Amino acid sequence: MPVPIRKESDSAVHRNIAKLAKLKVGSKDFSADVKKGPGAGEAKHNTFVGEVCLSAGAYVPRRIINDIIPENTGDWSDRATSIPGWNVVVYPQPGDVIAYNGLPAIVVSQNTSVTVLEGVVKESNWGFKLGHENAVVRRFVPKNIGPVSVVGPKRVRFSQRDADTASQ
Questions:
Q1: Number of helices (H) and strands (E), helices first, in the chain?
Q2: What is the pLDDT of residue 19?
Q3: pLDDT averaged over 10-residue windows placed end to end, the chain, 168 residues
Q4: pTM for this one?
Q5: Nearest Cα to 97, choosing from 29, 145, 49?
Q6: What does the buried/exposed string (b/e) look like for 24-53 if buried means 16 or more CB atoms within 10 Å of the residue's CB?
Q7: What span, in angstroms and rounded, lies between the C-alpha atoms of 144 and 140?
Q8: Cα torsion through 75, 134, 91, 19, rounded to 10
Q9: HSE-up (13 A, CA, CB side) for residue 3
Q10: How far apart are CA 93 and CA 147, in angstroms?
Q11: Measured between alpha carbons, how far is 112 from 140 in angstroms, rounded to an integer?
């Protein structure tokens, strides 16, 4: 039976994550012989998921070791591992990360995800297949990120900006 998709958090970031993942289908930019992420000869599942999420505006923590983005694949698949900004949820929706047996993917529609399989970005039912019932689903929730974790431009109100220019 298909897993129902609930529209709990249909934000622009979630829509963009799913959209950008679908746009990468067919790409070989994440094959093992490419020197990005952990380097040539290594799987690029994390790099794919991390780059797509970052490009869509979701915070993704970076690991120092081998520049693996964001966590090692086992972390996405482990319910007990805390990933800042990413809550473990029950019902997948587009833009979520679904991980099974160490391989993360991005949910793009009901029972469909996008990940790197055999060196090519592919749309498949990874995480939804029979036998993948224990897949871990994570959703980006920006309010769960501490202020130290977020780096971005300072927001200035018009009244503050006008006062700053008036004093010059």
A1: 4, 6
A2: 96
A3: 50 92 94 76 82 88 52 78 88 94 93 93 95 93 55 39 43
A4: 0.75
A5: 49
A6: beeeeebbeebebbbeeebbbbbbbbbbbb
A7: 9
A8: 60
A9: 26
A10: 26
A11: 18
Quick one: pLDDT at residue 129? 93
The confidence score (pLDDT) of residue 145 equals 53
For residue 49, give both structure tokens: 């998921």
First-residue to last-residue Cα distance in the chain: 66
Contact 70, 64 (CB under 8 A): no
The length of the chain in residues reads 168
- pLDDT recorded at residue 41: 74
Strand partners, 120: 117
Q: Which two tokens stand for residue 97?
A: 């990360």
pLDDT at 72: 63
Token pair for residue 67? 């520049």
52: tokens are 């797509």
SS3 string of 1-66?
CCCCCCCCCCCHHHHHHHHHHHHCCCCCCCCCCCCCCCCCCCCCHHHHHHHHHHHHCCCCCCCCHH
